[in-house]
Amino acid sequence: MAVRTIQWNNNRVIMLDQRLLPHKEVYRVYKNYEGVAQAIRDMVIRGAPAIGVAAAMGVALGALWVKGKNFDREIERIFHTLEKTRPTAVNLFWALERMRRIYIEKRGEGVEAVKQLLKQEAIKIYEEDIAANRQLGKFGAKLLGNASRVLTHCNAGALATAGYGTALGVFRAMKEAGKEIEVLVDETRPFLQGARLTIWELKKDKIPVTLITDSMAGYFMQRGRVQVVVVGADRIAANGDVANKIGTYGVAVLARRHNVPFYVAAPTSTIDLKCLTGADIPIEQRDPKEVSHILGRAITLRGVRALNPAFDVTPQDLVSAIITEKGVITPPFAQNLRSHVHRT
Ligand code: MRU
Fold first, then answer.
1. Which of 317, 209, 314 is nearest to 251 (CA)?
2. How many domains does the chain have?
3. Ligand 1 binding residues, C-beta < 6 A
4. Residues 331, 198: one domain?
């Protein structure tokens, strides 16, 4: 099944509005970069690689409408706006960096040429992400061997990427290889990416899924219902610490307690060697209303204090392996990550 998370079409960016899933499939059309930035902030699109692609397309879209004489000033405004959308997933900054490099290296060729080159680069980032996911999916499927009872947290699927997915890409590759697979899906409070998005995607692909609340993961691990955990990542530090959706750390602790391998599937664009450890990764703090309300309805007393860190950091010693499009990285991550990223 091809989930069309984001597309570049006729100098417009089209996104599936993920806030409305699984009940409604609504596509939004963006004609300017401000709209794309707002869509990232509002979670119309989410997931680390997907917001990287959206930011790149936002730059390309913004550049198209800039008049020649203000080009330098306007392009800076576009980069600045997109950089400020969400802080944790490094793919956003990685994609903007690639776009900036094109702009700096090619500006001598004239405004119209740069506009075309930025558009081409954004589409390239999109296409490369799908290819990376397919490749890491194959590596992951091999790594998992005959394990069939897997657990995942959040949504690291086609919806979180340009297509195919990272953790869910591994499950898709397993299915394509004819392996048995059954996925336990954490609902992923408070934004419910597991219940709303992962279930929707895997159901469409006819991959067997079962929804559980986040607090049930330990129960099912105790009963041998989980052989392997596979999650995505928003940023991986140079020492192997992994920032991912809030709750991932708890799953990793439980997995260690029950001798269940804990795998992280992510493209190399998610690895940030400039962050030496997880302590350097900025954690987005979102609106407390996402905690005090569910789907717009209050679940607690009015005015009660609530906190909403959107991500947590799983320390590297709880990570069994990291699966990328270049292969599988095993500990010691401090040594192996760096050489892996630089491998061609
Ligand atoms: O807040 P979100 O929905 O953008 O968070 C998404 C996640 O944490 C995903 O697990 C991560 O981005 C990996 S996506 C391939």
1. 314
2. 2
3. 46-49, 89, 154, 156, 160-161, 166, 193, 232-234, 244-245, 310
4. yes
